[in-house]
User: Fold this.
Amino acid sequence: MESQQVDGVANLYMVNNGKRIQVRMQKLKSERSSEKLIATLTEQVPALMVNNNVPGLSMAILRSSDLFWSGVFGVQSNITKEPVTQETVFEAASLSKPVFAYAVLKLCEDKKLDLDVPLVEYLPDPYIPDEPRVKLLTLRHVLSHSTGFPNWRPEGKPLKMYFTPGERFSYSGEGYQYLQTVVEHIIGKNLPDYMLAEFLQPLGMNNSRFVWTGDENLSVAVGHAENGEAKEKYLWKEMNAAASLHSTPNDFANFMCAVMRPIVDHPAHLGVKMAGEILKEQIKINDSVPWDDDWPKPEITTSDLAGWGLGWGIQHTGEGDSIWHWGDNGNYRAFALGDPNGGHGFVIMTNGKKGQKVINSIMKDIIGGEYPGVDLLHIA
Assistant:
């Protein structure tokens, strides 16, 4: 079944092994529910994009740990009007974090790093001078966002620790930056090249890069402001483990399949035991987040339904446990969720500042259920 609007907003099709084909939909509970879902998305997504000034959106839906359906909508740029395709690259923003976390866990599996050895033992110089609590900080704290760091250090000011590591959840890109320096020291190689050769390409992420110099021979979506104005593409000439991944939903869906269904003896996959560690909640998340003006609040609210594991958010709902993460690079917004038990999930990437509002409006239609972590972290 194929639906396409040549001169409209939507361009939808089924894919199988990366090829555009016309097939019967059998991955959902019934063909009727499949048709209803795609019809709902076909109808709702273009209108939501227009209402929120989001020019382009791309999504991939997983069923039973396989790519079930891909949908692309709109344009890469409001200026060029070039349509979004399956190969269109978006800034994945913080979806960088679970990919980098996966590589780090592979280094743990290979005995080059340890989840619970203080990171100061891997580097010759202290990451924060004159801060004794940094000596307690481990890889586990970084991946579970319990380092005690803010999200990012204030511009022109030194990095501070606000809590003892492990004391409470506080989302932090700075923690990943610290871990990146450790990994670079351990592997002794160019980290973007290492990630590309050891993980991105073997995991089927052929259109993904951790740096973007402008010389890549890949089609890239341009970010757009809240009013829909196209902005010049920012160049990420150095890797940022927390934020610089450029990818497509299909690529990221391939990565999620590896997380949820590791293949024995696959060189880039984690073993079953280590893959299982990803799904274990390390700390409860709370409603005091670094992007709010009142952070850090002394009194916090947590939920038994939402925590953080090793690189992923973990939510516990009536539908079971699932892993999730979002991405926010300002004018790019993204979201991914996976159900490891059933192998179901989705990835959505947008090139508009209000993209998360579109995502929030459709994600319950895609896979159902509640999103307690999204509510606690004020992701909108």
